[in-house]
Amino acid sequence: MATMTQHKIVFTGPPGAGKTTAIAMLSDIPPALTDVRNTDASLGKEHTTVGLDFGQVDLGNGQCVRLFGTPGQLRFDFMWRIVATDALGLVILIDNTRPDPLDDFSTYLDAYMDLLPTINCAVGVGRTGECPLPTVDQFGGLLAARGLAFPVLPVDVRRREDVLMLVDTVLIQAEMRT
Amino acid sequence: MSTLNTTLSEHARQAAQTLFAEVDGARAVVIATADGFDIAHTGHHAIDPARLAAMVSSISALGTAASRETGIGTPRYLVIESSEGRLVVRCMQVQDQALIVVVLTDKSVTLGLVWSHLSKAERLMNAA
User: Fold this and answer.
1) Cβ–Cβ of A37/B51 closer than 8 Å?
2) Mean pLDDT of chain A
């Protein structure tokens, strides 16, 4: 009987970075969402995730990935660690149109600082067409300054292949560690 | 920063005070928006109301997702029964705004009485 290997990958990042969209794009099942009506005008969106997102994708080679998403706002930082428990990898999504994407990135690097030396991680920078700065290299530089080196990729989370590339990047790192 | 109207915030403040006064054994009351902003709080227990508001927002949303997943409708109450007390969470709709009210109580408090007071608070806020 064929066995299925299950992995857990967590999508995190600031509000509006596309975590819920990324999971919906990749998931084989209708995602479990915890969206509520947003009352924070500064976010500029109607709904926001306050609990977690969950989806699942069968990669077709005996591997199944469970996809979890965190809420983005700092007030939900307690969920960031709860959701990341026992994860194989982390995908940090950044929205380059936000006021200070490098500061957003630093927030998440700080939040997961103790996990990052050992966890598999990929960074996806979105909306680089609208806002080319900061560059992918600048995000890489921020990682290097902390003694970290993870792939940083420009992505459009509305494209399934882009989200799959992020997941693949995490899985390849995991494979190389074994 | 939440953009709730000030009238609703004032009604929430009054409701929190009334709940705290009427629920025997209540240690704290926090009223939050569904997206986790503290709009009213009172009590004598040392809590961070902003943090508790965010936490009950997550708990409520997870309760809603689990209810949806299992086809049991819309959650009204969620209870965290701990060794030294309870968190009684009520999801309510007030003037087209989803609110979450949480009462932190002693373990001796009768749950049904807390539910009854929470229902009354919802009625009063909607009637105001």
Assistant:
1) no
2) 96
Q: Which domains does chain A have, with CATH numbers?
A: 5-177 (3.40.50.300)
Q: Are strands B38-43 and B26-33 parallel, antiparallel or unpaired?
A: antiparallel
CATH code where residue B84 lies? 3.30.450.30
Q: Which of A36, A42, A76 sits opposite B34 (nearest CB)?
A: A36
| B57 vs A32, A40, A50: nearest CB | A50
What residues of chain B lie within 8 A of the CB of A73, using their CB?
Answer: 36, 54
Residues 6+ apart with CB under 8 A from A14: A72, A94, A95, A98, A104, A107, A108
Q: What ipTM is given for this predicted complex?
A: 0.87
**What would the pLDDT profile of A55-104 be if each residue is shown by its tens digit?**
999 999 899 999 999 999 999 999 999 999 999 999 999 999 999 999 99
